[in-house]
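Record 1 of the preview.
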Amino acid sequence: MTESEAIQARHSVRKYLDKPIEAEKIETIQKCIDLCNRETGVHFQLVSNEPKAFRNGVDWPKYGKFEGVNNYIAIIAPKGNDGSVIAGYYGEKLVLLIQTLGMNTCWVGGTFKKVREVYTIGTGEELKCVISIGYGATQGVQHPQKKTFTDVAQAQEPVPEWFKNGVEAALLAPTAVNQQKFRFILHDGNRVEAIAKFSLIGYSHLDLGIAKYHFEVGAGNNFTWK
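->
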């Protein structure tokens, strides 16, 4: 499965089977985490066989209750908006990798218990959220797209096909309560600006990082970030 295929297949999953993750898959995920941590300012940490964080998960009528979560990634990154963008970007890189490994995930903002003894937060860092990992009881469902290309993108005609593809991939990115508070603007032929829009519930900068990763997968090597 390619990353483009993973974008299409990935849906948020909140109920997981009582099935352990194979050692070789844990190793693959850990290697990707190590690479992200070395090359960026993030401090992601894989937490395995830890059921406390989701033992009494909050039941959101619209989204469902978490069940069977024993493994997750603690998304720890520098404090502030810039740290949130980079956390979202590299977190989604991991999400798509995990999808290609035949497993499921969900970005989780506030509906979990912080079990601080299982991860380390350094000076100037904060826990942005976690990503649940496991074998889903289902493969999840695609939320109806609330927005269209013109709602989240700006470009002069004729719009390059690669830009359209990038925006369409971004529209499939998971965002907090499906708010899609981002915008992509095409400048000077192939320079793209990505903006986080104001959100009452927060997470828009984390969401922007997630959407930027999707945009890159969809657009390919046809542009540079502004």
